[in-house]
Amino acid sequence: MNKKFVGGAALALAAVLTLASCGSGSGSGTAPAGGGETKAAGGEPVTLSLVAAEYGDGPGAPNSSETFWKGISEAFTKANPNIKVDVKVLSWTGIDDAVATLIQNGQVPDILQLGGYAGYVKEGLLYPIDDVMSPNVKSDILPSFAKLGEADGKMYGVPFISSARALFYNKELFEKAGIAEPPKTWDELKAAAEKLKAAGVSQPYGLPLGQEEAQAESFLWMMGNGGGYTDASGKWAINSAQNKEAFTFLKGLVDAGLTTPNPGTKNRKDVWADFAAGKIGMVNGGPMAMPGFDKGAVNGKYGVTVTPGKSGPLTTTLGVADWMMAFNKNGHKEEIKKFFDFFYGTPDASKKIIDTYKFTPVTQSAATALSSDEKLKPFLDVLPNATFYPFTDPKWEEVKTQTQQTIGNIVKDPNGTLDNLQKIADGS
Is 385 in contact with 411 (CB distance < 8 Å)? Predict the structure, then answer.
């Protein structure tokens, strides 16, 4: 997929974030991680429990989430001596079940960082963000992401990280093919792909339509023609005229040998690996792809630009966010508010997330501070107007799965493939 504070606390955070690891511990009268039962009384210490997902390479790795969160918690406690934070970091493959078990056993965390929040809202388990974040801090959240964190007219989820998409291109291959500028339109993309192919590039445009994330690549092509999974009213519109035109154009690229061969069998990670190896001229990707690219043959040789659309660069892009939420069981509203204000109001924390995991920010101030970063700029330019999957619709999970499994057929039968997905969305 991140998300103003000055003076001593900011300096403390900057110092602590450099530590390889640090513990938060539990003082006298505090609760164990996952419980957080101790109330603030008579000035006694309170321990907040925080459960988070692993974004790095796991325990002991320099980019581990455990290292990140313990650095944050140590800095927070230095600024707020009576509040400690116990951190539990879990892998994405098991975190949902683990959190469900904690809740079932009455060990409800105070703060959870996860991929979604809506289910906990329905169960009445969360504080509204207005209760646990100061207005000036909340107002800095990018509006499109803040809106996405709402349920029943109130904000319950606050974005932790965000991610967007843009077009990466191999400058060396472009120079070899005589391409002066990256494409801004589909026609320019096709012309560039033809020149790359003539120059001996086997994959002018990287096209991952395999099951890993086919729904993302597909969405970008839909948006390029003013389409999408749904229309402006929220009604399913997968087989719209705009989408059919987009995929008919894409089929033409595939038929002409201007893309990854057999794109329906190619996953994002494989296509990104080929781009890193210098085998691909252009590919859509997110900022989280850059660490891999920087380790490959393409390091120092690639540029980033806004994804082309039919008549010009996209004015929106695919937006993805993971979430922070606050549970109400343990009564630690004021302590959580101090933590959220510290975390979201500290520029150093946002910068640390971006530097470590290469996501895009979720706050307007962080986006402004990073605007001079040429690699991030194309993502930041479109991030405020990001478009999201229709994940609040109960049919989305089924549509997403079927898109991942069948959208590869688009290169053979665009109309039929989209019509079939529309039937699934309509429940027919």
Answer: no
Q: Say how far apart CA 311 and CA 183 lie, in whole Å.
A: 11
State how far the Cα of 170 lies from the Cα of 180, in Å rounded to an integer.
12
Distance linking the first and last C-alpha atoms of the chain: 34
pLDDT at position 53, please? Answer: 93
Kind of pairing between the strands at 154-155 and 302-305: unpaired
Question: Per mean pLDDT, which range of 147-156, 347-356, 367-376 is the poorest?
Answer: 347-356
pLDDT digits (tens, 9 = 90+) for 128-157: 999 999 999 999 999 989 999 999 899 999
Angle between helices 214-223 and 241-255 (to 10 degrees): 110
**Is-contact 350 280, C-beta < 8 A?**
no
Chain centroid, CA 387 distance in Å: 12
Cα distances from 279 to residues 170, 283, 303, 347, in angstroms, run 9, 11, 15, 38
- The answer to whether 237 and 228 have CB atoms below 8 angstroms apart is yes
Sign of the torsion angle spanned by Cα atoms 118, 120, 124, 130:
negative
What integer is the mean pLDDT of 291-315? 95
d(CA 300, CA 249): 31
Residue type, 44: E
Region 94-103: mean pLDDT is: 92
pLDDT of the residue at 244: 98
Report which secondary-structure segment, H or E, holds 281.
Answer: strand 280-285
* Nearby residues of 119 by Cβ (< 8 Å), 6 or more positions away: none
pTM: 0.79
pLDDT over 90 (residue 391): no
CB atoms inside a 10 Å sphere around CB 93: 9
Give me 132's structure tokens: 């646990």
Contact 344, 158 (CB under 8 A): yes
Q: Which of 180, 179, 182 is nearest to 169 (CA)?
A: 182
C-alpha 241/C-alpha 251 separation (Å) is 15
Confidence at 374, pLDDT banded by 50, 70, 90: confident
Taking the C-alpha atoms of residue 329 and residue 338, their distance in angstroms, rounded to an integer, is 17
Tell me the CB-side half-sphere exposure of residue 154, using CA atoms within 13 A.
14
Residue 270: φ, ψ to 5°: -75, -40
Spatial CA neighbour of 230 closest among 386, 422, 420, 405: 422
- Retrieve residue 333's tokens: 């509203």
Question: What pLDDT does 222 receive?
Answer: 98
How distant is the alpha carbon of residue 49 from its chain centre?
Answer: 24
* CA distances from residue 182 to 93, 156, 306, 329 in whole angstroms, order as listed: 38, 40, 9, 53
